[in-house]
Amino acid sequence: MSASSTPPVVVRGLSKAYAGKPAVRTVDLEVAAGEIFGLLGPNGAGKTTTVECLVGLRAPDAGEIRLCGLDARAQPAAIRQHLGVALQSTALPDRMTPREALGLFGQFYARRRPVEDLLARFGLTEQGDQAFDRLSGGQRQRLALALAFLNEPAVVFLDEPTTGLDPQARRDLHALIRGLRDDGCAVVLTTHLLDEAETLCDRVAIIDRGQVVATGAPRDLAAGSRGRQAVHLRVRGPFAAGSLAALPGVTGLETRPEGFTFETESPAATLAGLAPLLAAPGVELLELQVRRASLEEVFLQLTREEHQ
């Protein structure tokens, strides 16, 4: 069965509860080969539980999971040969070196990449014989990715892969993740960093209270967010917030030291009503920005609605 005919990740009706309390509720997902797919959601939304069910660390209560065309619940041993997994933190013996770790874990797979190739690819050649407890946070995360890629997997699962990394280490890790995608892997990652999801992921699913509330490319989700536009306005002179609040379509008006911010569902009508206010005597326009809602704003909107 080719990757082109069937997505390497297919999930239908996935559900999991703890002590009778639902953590994941009828989740449906598909991830294509050569795609970075992000799972987003507030703390406790069900992201990590979803990933743990997919990789076999937890048994779901219901649902179908097919990975690389195989039934993950019925064929866990066969599935593991095709998966790479890096969880939030990688713990190894303090004195174990990256070269030793890769050699040891490579013995679990029928097909594996050469250790030296992995060290080079993930920027660890100089640290190959350095003890694990001497590695930086970024180096440990790169080692986690190298371990996840040992068996040339078709699907890679990454749980919060950049947590605690500085901006440069995060940027380096993003480049490595894109490299996995470019090799044809299906990459599934969880993240609480919405700017990261917006720049890194081809598609995302927003999960709240165990349910998928939206799926799509970050740009498409933002563009389809009820047509809302975010507006930032800065003026000098007599200008009352009340006059802005009365404009058609304006919601969420905030007055800040750097100016006014608000959203509008009717940008043309709002700007038409704003024009005479800006032309009033003594008013000087310093800055006016109109932009589509960001993924963060869509995320907050959707998760806020789910809790209302």
Condensed summary:
With 308 residues, the chain is of the alpha/beta class. Helix content is 32%, strand content 30%.
Q: In one word, what is the shape?
A: elongated
Give the terminus-to-terminus CA distance: 44 Å
Question: Helical region count?
Answer: 11
Helix fraction bin: 25-40%
* Percentage beta strand: 25-35%
Q: Gyration radius, to the nearest Å?
A: 24 Å
Uncertain spans, ≥5 residues at pLDDT below 50? none
**Oligomeric state of the chains in view:** single chain
Total number of beta strands? 14
Widest sheet: strand ordering: 6-7-8-3-9-10
Q: Element order, helices and strands?
A: EEEHEEHEHHHEHEHEEHEHEEHEH
Structural class comes to: alpha/beta
The largest sheet, given as strand count, sense and whether it forms a barrel, is: 6 strands, mixed
> What's the rounded overall pLDDT mean?
89
Note down, in words, how this protein is organized.
The chain has 308 residues and is α/β, with parallel strands linked by helices. The chain contains eleven helices and 14 strands. The strands form three sheets. The chain has a six-stranded mixed β-sheet, sandwiched between helices. Strands 2-1-4-5 form a four-stranded antiparallel β-sheet. Strand 7, helix 6 and strand 8 form a beta-alpha-beta unit. The model has no long low-confidence stretch (mean pLDDT 89).
